[in-house]
């Protein structure tokens, strides 16, 4: 075998991109499933996940999402080798399924009883539904302006939802503080490195679905960053295992009204969080949890960051619906909008193989019953939360703690 091709040796992950906090493995070819392996979905890659060989307990199908070659969309955009990696095809309709499932799987193995996360919406929906499916309680912290339909879906699954007046960053800090204080399973994206382990499996699937070839470019929306950092880690692990010799260029997409990493990548100063405004709630994140790693991963791959307007998001949603029969929400269509913009800016050539992630669509949930959730509007202060939580427990929680 050839070692030391390119900038970082096979068998190793480049610390200068990923830092030292992320999970490492003893990389070798046997960790990648052979083409004959019949396991489907995310657990196919369990040799590169932080779980042992026990039977998987999480009951919903996870990962193994389709890579679509939408002909009408290809000709409309002038990208004849465009592929859509459709993450909305999973059990809970967003790119939050994988991380939720892996954190819950680890929690089930260690006997956790409550899971918490902060969320702009979809991570909360996935966590509420995943927790309900396996009989755990869920405490979800959202910004106060979280989409009411998403809050309703969380509650329908029995989650306790805390809408935090001080916004998403405060919700993130409070969820983490509560996890430490009450010993809850912490699913906070990026902060828990397991979330990145789950999301990297998208890269493995893309490579396998392209018959063990890499695309030239992968386009991903960026909110907190784990989707992009996970992709990059997955491609670097394929290389570390000796499957590939390069990694694709990665293009990160943010909304014009919330583009901290686009600005950082261009060397511009950050804008104050209160100026944030976009219809794409899934990427409305003024202070991304793993922003530094995301910028380093994009730069290392010779990729780029682009920002798209709300109008471009709306057209991308319409293209996905009309040309690819794929429903999406604004953040879910952001990568496609970003692929168009990247073409205009010559970050992508028409002849290249381009994979755009579709990351979310509206999820209405089904009929859960007997697990009444709760909802409270709080400031973001830990002392106040302790008191609210005491009351929630006193009045509701005993009905459905497993
Ligand atoms: C969370 C989310 C994203 C962004 O993912 P990050 O890993 O936070 O960068 C993109 N699209 C949708 C629909 C999301 O819910």
Automatic annotation (TrEMBL):
Cofactors, names only: pyridoxal 5'-phosphate
One Gene Ontology term from the biological process aspect of the record: L-threonine catabolic process
One GO MF term attached to the UniProt entry: L-serine ammonia-lyase activity
Keywords noted in UniProt: Lyase, Pyridoxal phosphate
Record-annotated Tryptophan synthase beta chain-like PALP domain positions: 61-360
Record's keyword annotation contains Cell membrane: no
InterPro entries registered for this protein in UniProt: Ser/Thr_Dehydratase, TrpB-like_PALP, TrpB-like_PALP_sf
PANTHER family: L-THREONINE DEHYDRATASE CATABOLIC TDCB, THREONINE DEHYDRATASE, MITOCHONDRIAL-RELATED
Protein name (Swiss-Prot/TrEMBL): Pyridoxal-phosphate dependent enzyme
Species the sequence originates in: Micromonospora orduensis
